[in-house]
Amino acid sequence: MSEHRRTSLSVLEHGIGAAGYLWSAGLTLFTLGRPLVWLAGAVARSFPETEQPILGLIRAFLTAPPARSAAFMRGMLVGRMAPPRAVRRSVNVPTMILSLTADPLHPASDAHSLAADIVGAQVVSAGTLATLRFWPRRVTPAIVSFLVETFGIDVTTRQADA
User: Fold this and answer.
1) Whole-Å CA distances, 136 to 61, 97, 105, 129, 158
2) Residues 6 or more apart from 37 whose CB is under 8 A from it?
3) Burial of 8: CB neighbours in 10 Å, binned 0-12, 13-18, 19+
4) Strands (DSSP E) along the chain, which ranges?
5) Distance between CA atoms of 57 and 43, rounded to whole angstroms?
6) Rounded mean pLDDT for each run of 10 residues along the chain, 162 residues in total
7) Can you say how many angstroms the Cα of residue 147 is from the centroid of all Cα atoms in its chain?
8) How many whole angstroms separate alpha carbon 82 and alpha carbon 75?
9) Residue 70 class from Cβ within 10 Å (0-12 exposed, 13-18 middle, 19+ buried)?
């Protein structure tokens, strides 16, 4: 196996119930509600594309072909939700796990279970998704500390250069 792997946001054991509800609702919307989705997409296409990430994401979601979105939802419902525990236990690289509060798909209990599966993993409570998006400096010290400890990066020199 390659030592270089991408980071992912798998839904682990405690988030499967919430994922099932969300994916089922999405699949219903993109199959039975296809005319409504088509109409919403037509309205969204009448607005110009935007540089705003959130608005762009909403526009992309609404303008995607309903059949493609339904196929995605089907795959999410019947596909593997998380890597097996044996795979998680085989991770042997420094790992920081950001835990979000009030996230039904990625509850804190899953973050702590994942950390227990990965030797030396650290869990950092990042607050909410809004914290990461709008107030990232609240979490930055923990992330910088992890990078300094793990990779020996001298941040004092970099800050002086900035």
Assistant:
1) 25, 15, 21, 10, 19
2) 29, 30, 62, 66, 69
3) exposed
4) 96-99, 122-125
5) 15
6) 48 70 78 84 87 82 82 72 84 92 82 92 90 90 91 70 52
7) 20
8) 13
9) buried
